[in-house]
Request: fold
Amino acid sequence: MSSAYATLGRRVERRGTVPPAEVAALAENDAERREWALTLPLIKELLAADTVLIGVPMYNFSIPAALKAWIDRLTFPGAYVDPDTGSSLLRDTRVVVVTARGGGYGPGTPREAYDFQTPYLRTYFDELGVAEKNLCFTHAEMTRSGDVPALAGFQEMAVHSLAAARTAMTDLATSAHRR
Reply:
């Protein structure tokens, strides 16, 4: 993204809630039009989805740069707000986040406090207005136990974690979710 994205975003934000269909008219130059042309399809795709599935490895206790770039592109002032009611257009969208973690960061583990991935994504989707009941996390942990000697003693834990993640995903896939 270029500075034109931020400039257009600030201009839109100063006007209050501007529906995405009206943002193009506020672009003042080719760079802003180009940034909006890259952004609008992603916003439309997210708004059209009943369920969003995000598969994400934990990198350095957080999310990879590619996912952060998607988030940065997708986050645009007012894009997910109903201009008539002020409510979130994503409140009924289900977001399923499936993580793969080389170590163990779940509740009760020594590294639980090092998990910046889950709180970051939870806060992000909450800020977009996704209802808490529609935000689901599934974690497969100790995925590096087969190739990192220091984690070799945790291979059984990895097998159980992966099995639990598969079961959770099957349950989510078969549960009804309607907008």
Observations:
- The mean pLDDT is 93.
